[in-house]
């Protein structure tokens, strides 16, 4: 083979393999449905117009024509999600076919956190992304224009944990002095809660080292001794405990941080303006899943093994928290205040613009 | 369902080379997936008529290449030339660097030139086969390949010594009619 052919082959190797057959089938069916829907809409319009003519001819009130519903602007929606219990509603909605009912093919892509997803949103590689609210406030203060379009998760006691390897000599948070602690992203709600817990124990931010690791890799990193401790989230708290790979030192989400709204879905201002119908369809499906979870929490435990590498047994014991469909502005204000008092952000967060209309 | 299983089998067997071809044509993962998906969707739509097509792989390839060329023609306004070509102050034999240079230069060719180069040198097809896939004459393939290589040499002189040398189509065209 020639040098050129060889190099082209190497470039082609960068292309990831993904099964496109299922997506193609869905797009095909959706296209056929759209054709049918369009035909149906035409019939409706014709009938309504005919009826209007008849009604007009008769004495009486004229009627308004029915406007056919328009399909979403985009059919494929790429959503960045963190592989934790927080993103469960997205996977429950997928499993139940709620997105498909709305004419959307939702493609979840695992990200390590809000800071990692934000550039992908800017570049249009992701349409929507999971975020914690503190990260969003910080990024907006730094000049981004991200909006909260939907809530996802609210923590319960035990949803998060500061954990160490079982053989570690660390017993209390104060023992973490000069230790390496794994967190998903350097700035955000997780590190905020972690640092608050460490400061309560008398440590300053110079007394420990934070290392970025995606949640699914934290237990392994502790096994290998790459880090001394980790800020875990469910289901990894339960997995770590059950498999003897982690010992819990403290729950960071207590006191001022108790029961916080930990995750929502964000989009750029521009994407929201360009895709109002897609967003509305996505929200309807997600809300439906959140209502289903509220009545049947087992849905979350069933969905967890599909996107995290955990077993059904561990999923059954995980502390899943709750998945409120509605945002609570007072709770968002609480997070904004925490972020400000811990110096993550310098100015009061602008909640009015941070929440997209209808969210 | 019969059609679905048959289509799935086709995808399983041919997806890999087709995705790679799409990637080399578009230079971008998502565009490549979109391109391939649009080909797949059209194939599902007319699957019953495709039963008589002997070589489905070539059929898909042909559809993809032509769709891509007409796509880019329609959307030529959003063609984004990748950032500045890298600084030429250094002489490098590092193959990774050369590959990046090649990649950037490739994206600055016209879609048709790129298609010809990829089919001819990556898929290692004869000029005749390339002409059949693109639905043009062998002469066009020759001249497109010639121009594409010439353009690569101007865009990235350091690639020059490694690029294949073709007969000048002006001389050879008459010979092979």
Highlighted features:
heterodimer, A: 359 residues, alpha/beta, 5-stranded mixed β-sheet, globular, B: 177 residues, mainly alpha, 9 helices, 0% strand, disordered C terminus
How would you explain this protein's 3D organization?
The complex is a heterodimer of chains A (359) and B (177). Chain A has 359 residues and is of the alpha/beta class. Chain A is built from 15 helices and 10 strands. Chain A has helices at residues 3-12, 21-57, 88-96, 98-101, 114-123, 133-141, 189-200, 215-223, 236-242, 269-274, 276-295, 298-307, 312-317, 329-341, 351-354; strands at residues 76-81, 105-110, 128-131, 146-154, 160-164, 180-183, 209-212, 229-233, 247-250, 261-268. In chain A, strands 2-1-3-10-4 form a 5-stranded mixed beta sheet, with helices on both faces. In chain A, helix 7 links the parallel strand 6 (180-183) and strand 7 (209-212). Residues 60-68 of chain A have low confidence and may be disordered. By secondary structure, chain B is an all-alpha fold. Chain B is 67% helix and 0% strand. Chain B is built from 9 helices and no strands. Chain B has helices at residues 2-26, 29-45, 47-50, 56-74, 95-106, 111-122, 127-134, 138-155, 169-172. In chain B, helix 1 crosses helix 4 and helix 1 (2-26) crosses helix 6. Chain B is globular and about 55 Å long. In chain B, 28% of the residues are buried. The chains are: A alpha/beta (359), B mainly alpha (177). Chain A binds chain B through residues 1-5, 7-21, 23-25, 27-28, 31, 125, and chain B through 4, 7-8, 11-12, 15-16, 19-24, 29-30, 32-33, 36-37, 40-41, 43-45, 95, 98-99, 102-103, 117-118, 121-122, 124, 162-164.
């Amino acid at each position: 083979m020639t040098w050129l052919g060889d190099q082209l082959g190497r470039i082609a190797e960068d292309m990831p393999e993904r099964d496109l057959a299922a997506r193609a089938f869905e797009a095909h069916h959706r296209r056929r449905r759209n054709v049918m829907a369009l035909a149906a809409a035409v019939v409706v319009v014709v009938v309504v117009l005919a009826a209007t003519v008849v009604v007009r001819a008769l004495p009486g009130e004229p009627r308004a024509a029915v406007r056919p519903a328009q399909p979403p602007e985009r059919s494929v929606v790429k959503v960045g999600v963190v592989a934790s219990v927080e993103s469960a509603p997205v996977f429950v909605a997928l499993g139940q076919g709620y997105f498909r009912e709305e004419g959307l093919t939702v493609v979840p892509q695992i990200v390590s956190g809000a800071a990692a997803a934000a550039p992908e949103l800017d570049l249009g590689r992701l349409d929507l992304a999971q975020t914690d609210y503190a990260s969003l406030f910080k990024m907006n203060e730094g000049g981004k224009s991200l909006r909260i379009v939907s809530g996802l998760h609210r923590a319960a006691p035990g949803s998060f944990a500061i954990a160490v390897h079982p053989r570690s000599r660390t017993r209390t948070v104060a023992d973490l002095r000069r230790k390496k602690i794994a967190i998903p992203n350097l700035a955000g709600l997780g590190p905020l809660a972690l640092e608050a817990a460490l400061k309560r124990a008398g440590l300053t931010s110079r007394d420990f080292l934070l290392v970025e690791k995606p949640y699914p890799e934290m237990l392994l990193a502790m096994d290998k001794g790459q880090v001394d401790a980790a800020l875990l989230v469910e289901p990894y708290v339960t997995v770590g405990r059950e498999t003897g790979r982690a010992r819990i030192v403290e729950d960071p989400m207590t006191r001022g941080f108790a029961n916080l709204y930990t995750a929502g879905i964000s989009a750029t201002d521009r994407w929201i303006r360009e895709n109002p119908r897609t967003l509305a369809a996505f929200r309807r499906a997600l809300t439906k899943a959140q209502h289903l979870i509220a009545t049947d929490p087992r849905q979350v435990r069933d969905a967890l093994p599909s996107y995290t590498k955990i077993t059904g047994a561990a999923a059954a014991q995980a502390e899943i928290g709750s998945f409120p469909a509605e945002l609570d502005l007072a709770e968002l204000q609480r997070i904004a205040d925490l972020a400000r008092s811990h110096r993550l952000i310098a100015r009061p967060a602008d909640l009015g613009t941070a929440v997209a209309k209808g969210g | 369902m019969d059609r679905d299983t048959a289509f799935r089998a086709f995808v399983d067997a041919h997806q890999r080379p087709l995705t790679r071809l799409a990637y080399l044509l578009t230079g971008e993962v998502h565009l490549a997936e979109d391109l391939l998906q649009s080909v797949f969707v059209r194939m599902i739509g007319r699957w019953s008529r495709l039963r008589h097509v002997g070589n489905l792989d070539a059929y898909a390839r042909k559809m993809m290449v032509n769709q891509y060329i007409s796509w880019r023609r329609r959307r030529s306004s959003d063609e984004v030339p990748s950032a500045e070509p890298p600084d030429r102050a250094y002489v490098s034999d590092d193959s990774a660097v050369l590959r990046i240079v090649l990649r950037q230069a490739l994206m600055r060719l016209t879609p048709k030139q790129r298609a010809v180069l990829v089919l001819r040198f990556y898929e290692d097809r004869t000029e005749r086969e390339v002409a059949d896939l693109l639905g043009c004459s062998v002469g066009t393939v020759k001249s497109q390949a010639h121009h594409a290589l010439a353009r690569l040499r101007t865009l990235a002189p350091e690639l020059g010594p490694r690029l294949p040398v073709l007969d000048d189509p002006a001389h050879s065209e008459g010979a092979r009619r």
